[in-house]
Amino acid sequence: MTAEDNAALGRIRWERRWLLAWAISAAPALWAAWRTPHRGLAIAAVGLIWTAGVALSLARLLFAHCPRCGRLFHSADAMPSVAKIFAPRCGQCGLRLKPERIIYPSLE
Ligand SMILES: [Zn+2]
């Protein structure tokens, strides 16, 4: 595995963290918007921003390409799959997202 492959896998892991961050931070943001005097407008703004953030993060993650096979990482066929969004391996070639531990590098 090359340094470019590791960088591409790192970008996929980074996109996953962004998606989780958007999802987890929605509840506190909505709570903060609820506490404002203009709660209807604030909740609408938070909902719009968070929906756009989740959609953008999800799209970037769905269309991420595998560094080894060049096809969609989260897909078993040509179509991106939301069901495989947190799969630990590439749906096409089986490349692991997290690098495996190498205890003895000289044996690789
Ligand atoms: Zn692959």
Give your account of this protein's structure.
The longest helix has about 30 residues, at about 5-35. The protein has helices at about 5-35, 40-60. Helix 1 (about 5-35) packs antiparallel against helix 2 (about 40-60). Helices cover about 50% and strands about 0% of the residues. The chain contains 2 helices and no strands. The protein has one domain (about 5-105). The structure holds zinc ion. Zinc ion binds near residues 68 and 93.
Please outline what is shown here.
By secondary structure, this protein is mainly alpha-helical. It contains 2 helices and no strands. It has one domain (3-107).
Helices, by number, come to 2
Q: Total domains, how many?
A: 1
User: How much of the sequence is in beta strands?
Assistant: under 5%
Portion of residues within helices: 40-55%
Q: Estimate the mean pLDDT confidence.
A: 89
Distance between the termini: 11 Å
- Category by helix and strand content: mainly alpha
Low-confidence stretches: none
How would a crystallographer describe the biggest sheet? none
Say which molecules are bound, naming each kind only once.
Answer: zinc ion
Listing every helix as H and every strand as E from the N terminus to the C terminus, the arrangement reads HH
